[in-house]
Amino acid sequence: MLGDVDDSGRDLRGWAADEGWLRRPLRWVELLFGTVGIAVMTGLLAGGMLTRGHRRAAVLIVAVTLATWGATQGAKLLVDRDRPEWEYEEFLHGTAAYPSGHASQVTALAGLCLVLVVMLVRRGTIRRLVGTGLGLVVVLVCLDRLLLGRHFWTDVTGGAALGAGLLLLGVALYSPLPRSVALKAAPLPQALPSKNDLAVVLNPSKVEDVSQFQAIVTQLAEESGWKAPRWHFTTREDSGTGQAEQAAVEGADLVIVCGGDGTVREVCAELAGTGIPVGIIPAGTGNLLARNLDIPLFIRAAIDIALNGQDRAIDMVKVAGDGIDDTHFMVMAGMGFDAAIMEGVNEDIKKRVGWLAYVWSALKSLMFPPARVEVSVDGGEWTKHRARTVVVGNVGYLQAGMPLLPDATIDDGRLDVVLLYPRRFLSWLPLAFRVLTKQPRTDETITRMTGRTVSIRAAAATPRQLDGDTIGPGHELHMECIHGRLLVRVPR
């Protein structure tokens, strides 16, 4: 039966030979996913995981790739099967045919990528999209081997089965999930007695499976010596304030908040000054506070840090303005272009593609009209400016690590201000270069200030945002940095 299947390769070879234009792309695929190409991809993937702190994932990537290559070469020597007689004449392969090294290695690498996607990507739509793409890559490489006449059908299927089997064995023997901080670090001294009471404030819309999330938190909490958590769910009417207050009243020694920047802001504002530390599980689109505190975006690692990390006193910012009640922010406030981006985000698109929705909104808002603004720092004289956006930050970095306020520190007791005024559409390009390269030079295009209090007045009603949440257009914002007001759990 296998011989009959293999013989069908003659038809494939005839079709490929008749289509001369197909030979070059087939050869490109062969080179790209050859041993050298796979080695380069493996190195980049493992290096990326190391850079992001996922050492165990990097070890698994290298181990499975090496094991697949070694097992493939061993099987070739053992079976010693000749290549098909209709093999493409150029660049003839001198090694044995069974199993296909291309098929085994690309299957193992695609499987490793899928494991990482399942582990690190939260959105089911994106996971399914990437999984489909990886499957198509494997099919493409396998067809390439047949169309060039390099292998029989059984060589390709045997190689794919070998790669998949070694991947499953590797995951079974060595989990890529990071180990708990509690397993590799000594317990931290406690300033006050603790009953290890734990409360969790959860925005249920930010996790795909609430019961699964609860099970993970409960398991990790019990392993770390905490009591089973009490759960508080946010609602449309209350996005975290009431839940945080209830957790404090019930005597929680630690409050974990899982949600976007808005939910995190509400919980942190309520618990500021109570001495109760807040553990942050970033589950939103921006997650700017978590990013600037080096809290991992991988949920299990973030839960581990929340349970076993160390407490850090950070600043929060008191905000007042026309048309809004007195409130606070943790990350940054803005007037103008950045707030217009937030207003222009389509929530349906945001749910499907995440931060890409902000990119699309930003492209539509690039030429947001400039505003005439006045700025006063630490009660000083008002200075006049023209700006497309004004950002006041408690932290320095935006999405993708953009250093908009590179000197800002979340516990220095000061606020950093930047005013951007690109005159024309193309002026955004040199401005972006200056921001990315952290050039200190200032002029009318980019102006920087710093102080403990900052007040902004706009001549016309201008869009405003706090931590990514729009608060409606207005003329004024008055901000005061409250030094060391909040305790948050950060990596040791």
Rg from Cα: 28 Å
Helical region count? 18
The main β sheet shows up as: 6 strands, antiparallel
Strand arrangement across the biggest beta sheet? 6-5-16-13-8-9
What structural class is derived from the secondary structure elements? alpha+beta
Strand content: 15-25%
> Which percent bin holds the helix content?
40-55%
Structural shape: globular
Stretches with pLDDT under 50, minimum 5 residues: none
The average pLDDT is 85
**Distance linking N and C termini:** 60 Å
Q: How many domain modules?
A: 3
Total number of strands: 16
Summarize the structure.
The chain has helices spanning 2-7, 9-18, 23-32, 35-51, 55-79, 101-120, 124-147, 153-173, 181-184, 210-223, 241-249, 261-271, 288-292, 299-308, 337-344, 347-353, 356-365, 428-436; strands at 198-202, 230-233, 254-259, 278-282, 310-321, 324-329, 332-336, 371-377, 383-387, 389-393, 415-420, 446-451, 453-462, 464-466, 469-470, 474-490. The protein is of the alpha+beta class and 492 residues long.
Task: Report what the structure shows.
- The chain is α+β, with helices and mostly antiparallel strands.
- It has three domains: 2-173, no CATH class; 181-308, Probable inorganic polyphosphate/atp-NAD kinase, domain 1 (Rossmann fold, 3-Layer(aba) Sandwich); 324-482, Tumour Suppressor Smad4.
- The protein has 18 helices and 16 strands.
- The strands form three sheets. It has a six-stranded antiparallel beta sheet with strand order 6-5-16-13-8-9. The protein has a six-stranded antiparallel beta sheet with strand order 12-11-10-7-14-15. A four-stranded parallel beta sheet has the order 2-1-3-4, sandwiched between helices.
- Strand 8 and strand 9 form a beta hairpin.
- Helix 4 (35-51) runs parallel beside helix 6 (101-120) and helix 6 (101-120) runs parallel beside helix 8 (153-173).
- The longest helix has 25 residues, at 55-79.
- The protein is globular.
- The model has no long low-confidence stretch (mean pLDDT 85).
